[in-house]
Amino acid sequence: MIEELLTAGVRVGTPLALAAIGEAIAEQGGVINLGIEGAMLAGALGAAMGASAAGPAAGVGVAILAGTATAAVFAAVAIGAKANQIITGTAVTLLMTGLTGLIARQFFGAAGAGLSLPTLAPVPIPELSRIPLLGEVFFDQSLLTYVSYLLVPLATWLTFRTRFGLELRASGESSSAASAAGVRVGRIRTIGVLIGGATAGLAGASLVLVQVGTFTERMTAGRGFIAIAIVVLGRKHPVGVALAALLFGGATAVQFVVQAGGSGLPYQLWQALPYLLALGVLATSTGNEKREARRLRLGSGGPPEEDRLSERA
Amino acid sequence: MIAKGFLTRAARRDLFLTAGAFILGLALLALFLAIAGFNVGAALSAMWRGAFGSWYALTSATLVRATPLIVLGLAFTLASRGGTLNIGMEGQFALGATAATWAGLHAGSLPPPIAIPWVLACGAIAGAAWMLLPVVFRLRFGVTEVITTLLLNFVADAVVSFAVTGPLQEPTHIYPQSATIAMSAQLPKLVDGARMHLGLPIALLLAALLGALLWKSRWGFTLRAVGAGATAARVSGGIATASVIASALLWSGAIAGLGGAIEVTGVSYALYQNLSPGYGFTAIAVALLGRLQPLGVVVAGLLFGALEAGAGAMQRDAGIPAVAVQVVEAVVILTLVVLTRREAAER
After folding, report:
1. Considering the domain boundaries, does residue B4 fall inside one?
2. Among residues A13, A62, A266, B219, which is most buried (max CB within 10 A)?
3. Cβ contact A99–B154 (<8 Å)
4. Burial track A21-41 (b if 16+ CB lie within 10 A, e otherwise)
5. Of B251, B201, B257, whose CA–CA distance to B82 is shortest?
6. Euclidean distance between CA atoms B147 and B155, whole angstroms
């Protein structure tokens, strides 16, 4: 039972981790992209189309391209034209909901993609998968889950150990200061957003090729938005984000296990659990961040500015 | 806008922007349809027929669809004027519909003049209640309402799902929907043989009221001052920004909840899942297209009502999924958000 729950948690958490790790990079640069919900949807459709035409590997490739292209639309409007990020992100998600619905209908017909897509089976890692409990939970998963493991050190290195990462974080901290120091903020942010789009596309691919096996309209069902909450919980750090994704994967998986087992409570409660958890986490973690900011005398926008003034006086 | 009239330079510019964004959206949809290999001519003519092609299409489809869009567009406008973003109208709409259904099922003994206001009020209260958590989170924890309202949309889905399979399920317990609400709680029809109902005049009245409040009342002034710049309003205006932000969000939630109540009492007469085909998001486009002016929202709501009605016909007659019109909506939002960004920065 516990093993089943954890295994399902890792499987369900994979697309969340993939999308959130990329979004964390975008947010390190000071951009919040609600359009990753749309990028994930585009990735899902791309994966379904690519996989049905030329197998799962092609599906993954098309998904990454579709996610990146979606993020490019967002970047052009929100960074290029400096429009409101939240409204732009919402609109990009709407755009992709419409476009994917349209293209799916034309590509797969009225019946939908069917359940016959070639999917990615779990690939047990030879020695590791034999570790009791943990082996099966973490090392008997699909390749895309392993990709998400690899992305954690990669994103950490990129964000904290490279010149790009330094410029990215500088852009996020203060775009005017970064710009004065010679950082090309727009370009750096765009790269961050495009990386986020690529991993969101990958997330869509894992949804289609690992979990569901087909494409349906609006199938991401808010996972992109959950990923944004995960980034907040994980404090924009790839390790924190990956752990938070695991937590959400687990919370989502609870409903499958509970539904099968039957518990006196209405199943809708379990259905709402990941979202409620996200809300609870936002309340606690943002509060900490605020306190932290106050401690360090660094404002996080709005009121702290005033605090700073009073502290100086 | 009401006071300014139609022909000022700003109003002409608004009209031009609105028309331009809408036409660009339609043109891009046509382009995508062509690329995807659909028959563009058939699609657009089906759309026109479904929206304006007949008296029936106008009074039973376009105006019926426009009603919730206008109401939700006003909800978004109110929040935005106060400098907040209500991305959770879908959830408040669902909660308003749920509360209105509950009240409507128990309103059989009341006469319509009492039952209808009571049921609508229940919807508005539920919508405002659903906004309480985002308000507390914003003011107490500093969590932006954007994420909380968005996440609550999914919780609202679960609430409706629970209601229609649990406490509000129809008596035979077969279908996941509620029973029909009492006759006395149903909004009267305005035209014989058409589905148009009292909700439209209510929406228009609401628009007039909101316009008057925003530009002629002290409350409206403080709201717009906070929306224009919270720090300036607090420091030089001595305005208690927290309470203004709370009232902007709560009233926005109440209006969205009212929208759900109007949909139940005017159109569906029962609660079921996915009552709103994304009205909460379409309404963002409506509000932006209406340039966050109540009168503009009415015009944009009618336009988008036509678009949604046309989308239904396009799906039936030309086999093109109705979600395709979201492409138009998205293009409208993106165009306007780019073209008006300088203004927004100045505001």
Report:
1. no
2. A13
3. no
4. bbbbbbbbbbbbbbbbbbbbb
5. B251
6. 13
Helices B279-289 and B63-81 pack at an angle, to 10 degrees, of 70
Cα–Cα distance, A220 to B89 (Å, whole number): 19
User: Which are the contacts of A2, defined by CB distance < 8 A and separation ≥ 6?
Assistant: none
At B88 the pLDDT is: 94
For A148, half-sphere exposure in the C-beta direction (CA atoms, 13 angstrom radius) is 31
Residues of A in contact with B330 (CB under 8 A): 91-92, 94-95, 98
Distance CA B71, CA B171 (A): 32
Amino acid sitting at position A81: A
Look over chain A and give the mean of its residue pLDDT values, rounded to a whole number: 84
Cβ-Cβ contacts under 8 Å for B242 (sequence gap 6 or more): B139
Chain B contacts in chain A segment 30-89 (CB below 8 A): 34, 73, 77, 81-84, 86-88
- In a mutagenesis test of the A interface, which of B28, B40, B143, B346 is the best target, namely the one with the most A β-carbons within 10 Å? B143
Q: Name the more confident of A177 and A302.
A: A177
Amino acid at A176: S
Q: H helices of A29-124, where?
A: 36-54, 56-74, 85-108
Q: Of the candidates B262, B291, B295, B265, which has an alpha carbon nearest to the alpha carbon of residue B279?
A: B262
**Distance of alpha carbon B252 from alpha carbon B78, whole angstroms:** 6
Contact between chains at A275 and B152 (C-beta distance less than 8 A):
yes
Q: What is the C-alpha to C-alpha distance for residues B123 and B86, in angstroms, rounded to an integer? A: 17
Listed in sequence order, the residues at least 6 apart from A36 whose beta carbon sits closer than 8 Å to its beta carbon are: A19, A22, A23, A71, A89, A196, A197, A200, A224, A227, A228
% of chain A at pLDDT higher than 70: 87
Domain extent at residue B37: 9-346
Q: Out of B87, B154, B337, whose CB is closest to A77?
A: B337
- Give the count of beta carbons closer than 10 Å to the beta carbon of residue B111: 9
Tokens 């939700």, located at residue: B72
Question: At B276, which CATH number?
Answer: 1.10.3470
The hierarchical CATH code for the domain A2-264 is 1.10.3470
Residue B3 counted as domain residue: no
Instruction: Count the domains in chain B.
Output: 1
For residue B1, tell me if it sits in a domain.
no
Asked if the structure places residue B71 within a domain, the reply is yes
CA distances from A97 to A113, A290, B73 (A): 16, 35, 20
Find where tokens 């994917």 sit: A100
What pLDDT, in 10s, does the model give residues B54-69?
888 999 999 999 999 9
Q: How far apart, in whole angstroms, are the C-alpha atoms of residue A196 and residue A20?
A: 8
Per the DSSP assignment, residues forming a β-bridge with B189 are B197
Interchain contact A90–B (C-beta under 8 A)? yes
Residues of B in contact with A106 (CB under 8 A): 36-38
pLDDT at residue A261 is higher than 70: no
Q: Estimate to the nearest angstrom the gap between the alpha carbon of B73 and the chain centroid.
A: 4
The Cα A46–Cα A40 span in angstroms is: 10
Residue B304, both tokens: 């988008």
Among B37, B152, B328, the residue with its CB nearest the CB of A106 is B37
Q: Please give the helix or strand (H or E) that residue B179 lies within, else none.
A: none
Q: Please check whether residue B226 is in contact with residue B241, taking contact to mean a CB–CB distance below 8 angstroms.
A: yes
Q: How far apart are CA B247 and CA B241, in angstroms?
A: 10
Distance CA A66, CA A72 (A): 10
Chain A residues with CB-CB distance to B274 below 8 A: none
pLDDT at residue A290 greater than cutoff 60: no
Q: How far apart are CA B185 and CA A6, in angstroms?
A: 49
